[in-house]
Amino acid sequence: MLVGSAILLVTLGAGAATARLDPVLPANDPFYAAPANVADYAPGAIMNRREILMFGLPLRVSAWQLQYRSTGPGDRPVAAVATVLVSAAPWAGPNARPVLSYQIAEDSLDTHCAPSYALHGGRDSAISSTVIDTPFLADALMRGWAVVVPDYEGPESRFFDGVNSGRAVLDGIRAARGFSAAGLSTASPVGAWGYSGGAFATMWAAQLRRTYAPELSFAGVTAGGIPTDIAGIARNADGGTQAGLSMLIVLALMRNAPNFEMSAMLNDRGRAEMATATTTCGVDMLARYSAAHVDEFSKSPDLLSQPMFLAAAREQELGDVVPDMPLYLYHSTTDEVVPVAGFDALLNRYCGSKSTVIARHSSASGHNGTAIAEAPGGMDFLADRFAGEPLTPGCSLS
Questions:
Q1: CATH architecture of the domain covering 2-14+26-228+320-397
Q2: Burial of 303: CB neighbours in 10 Å, binned 0-12, 13-18, 19+
Q3: Which residues are CB-neighbours of 181 under 8 A, at least 6 positions away?
């Protein structure tokens, strides 16, 4: 995929990279700092903007960062950041240029892991998730769509915080459609896409649309490798090559849900890890904790089955609300990261109500293989929705 990403960057017009410095880390960049009057802005209102080079390279892509007002934990006003991308490819459709909200799997506990930093030209290990998504971003851009990529975890990097992530996605769409420099407007059709951690944010936005952003109308949503049964994901990864994901989930839920007081379940080693791991990206945690067991860091036996952990995980589960837009969902039957049983349970909830769902059980190999194999179908689904192609209501499962 990295080779494919490089090829597609060239296709989009990449020139030879020149000597350059990485952009300032978000924590030290004044652009990310919330203005003192952030509460005076409506959700989705643009508070600051700047033009950037995508990946710091001279591509034939216009790119901007938008700082916009969103709603964080406790309904507090927060400053969020999204990157808006528009290629030189013209939009030949009968309506306004569509805008695709593309959620990259941020999977982190620190803002330097956010996609806006990578898309601005950051070069450390934090950019790996964003670079891997380059072929899919390029596909959307070459179709003539505008793409908005939100830092949906927000300024506190709240991994697996559904409400926080969903609101940031919706407000990012509001900001993008209000950004006339990108040729967008409230007439621009809206779609959303996400895989794995990005699918989590995408589907939370789909669930929250009706109550949080009722003026937005989605033409369609594509999501794959959707994280469901969060506690089950952590247990499945514990002790294996993906054990860093278990630690990421535990530390994120502890930080996101302090009312559960789960930090008291950690031993001295666990507390030390919590103090340092919260500045670490997911890809680094996979390397750091490979083959580790969560209970090595806990004074409570079988932490991943403790009622407090299960309750904190349950708060972030999808499925309590059925999205009211057409959905294209896919999942590998051999997914080694997110077991397919959770996907099936989610489909049962969605299909038990009035909904329009196309769901694919993919025979592609595993979590990452499915991300590649099923992407064309997901993109074509969105293209048909933007074109106004009719879709039969109900659930179509394969």
A1: 3-Layer(aba) Sandwich (3.40)
A2: buried
A3: 49, 64
Q: What would the pLDDT profile of 244-259 be if each residue is shown by its tens digit?
A: 999 999 999 998 888 7
Percent of the residues in the chain that have a pLDDT greater than 70, as a whole number: 94
Domain boundaries, the chain: 2-14+26-228+320-397, 235-314
- The CATH class that applies to domain 235-314 reads mainly alpha
Compute CA distances 8 → 91, 142, 249, whole Å.
19, 10, 33
Check: CB of residue 209 under 8 Å from CB of residue 198. no
DSSP for residue 53: -
3-state secondary structure of 379: helix
Tokens matching residue 263: 């930090």
- DSSP for 161-179 reads -HHHHHHHHHHHHHHHHT-
> Residues 73-115: pLDDT tens digits?
999 999 999 999 998 878 888 788 999 999 999 999 999 999 9
**Are the C-beta atoms of 195 and 105 separated by less than 8 Å?**
yes
Report the relative pairing of strands 327-332 and 218-224 from DSSP bridges.
parallel
